[in-house]
Amino acid sequence: MQPMTNTPPTRFCLIRHGETDWNGEKRIQGQIDIDLNAAGEAQARALRQGLSEHEFAAVYSSDLLRAWHTAQIATVALGIAVSPAPTLRERHFGVLQGITRGEASLQRPDAHRHHVARTPDYDYETGESLIAFAARVMNGLEALAARHAGRSVLVFTHGGVLDVAYRAAAGLVLEAPRDFPVLNAAVNWLEYCADDWRLISWADCSHMRGALDEVLE
Fold first, then answer.
1. pTM for the predicted model, two decimal places
2. 128 belongs to a structural domain
3. All residues at 6 or more sequence positions from 207 whose CB lies less than 8 Å from its CB, including other chains
4. pLDDT tens track for 131-190
5. What is the mean pLDDT of residues 5-29?
6. Is residue 161 part of a domain?
């Protein structure tokens, strides 16, 4: 009989990218490659000091520009190269990508109805279902957990990814309405061990004080 092995927990620091112009317009970005605006760059810079207080085994980022740019700015003092993690891209929203939520209700009412209802198996005609997206995200995170067992990992990603990860830790079903914040450049900590996710802290914005003041000066 093989002796049981106890895999040490992996801690994840998950960060949504900084603000983009499309965030402000409530335009659905999905996998369209939008860069940060000035406020988003300031948010990324504000992350530096808080992140420098932690020791990370590795840094990963979605390969979409808004996450990748946030990672490059925020980690400049860590001395760790950022590795691409395509599995942690935002969800592909198919026919809704590139339009605002208001436009979606008029131009694509059926897709908008499924979007609001969080229909798990709906794929926006040319996009990705919530079920498929969640599987991609969780498989990606669990692969990183196995690679860095017992260590802390820093990840730059997107709102949809954070939504899925939070639900996994809180035991919420995918189709339930979101009742928790998913904020640009906030710091979120989760822990993974033995197929179990645990929420440590969420939506910490203490590093953001004064971040937008430099944009307005």
1. 0.94
2. yes
3. 46, 47, 49, 50, 187
4. 999 999 999 999 999 999 999 999 999 999 999 999 999 999 999 999 999 999 999 999
5. 94
6. yes
The verdict on whether 25 is a catalytic residue reads no
CA 59, CA 61: separation in Å to the nearest integer?
Answer: 7
Token pair recorded at residue 97: 């990508």
pLDDT band at residue 212 under the 50/70/90 scheme: low
Instruction: Provide the domain count of the chain.
Output: 1
Query: What pLDDT is attached to residue 216?
Result: 46
Residue 2 counted as domain residue: no
Can you give the residue range of the structural domain that contains 81?
10-216
Q: Which of 90, 92, 114, 128 is catalytic?
A: 90
d(CA 79, CA 202): 25
Q: What is the CATH number of the domain that holds 181?
A: 3.40.50.1240
3 falls within a domain:
no
Residue 6: the pLDDT is 78
Q: Is 17 a catalytic residue?
A: yes
Per the prediction, the chain carries an average pLDDT of: 94
Whole-number Å distance between alpha carbons of 24 and 89: 20
**Tokens (6 digits) for 4:** 């049981």
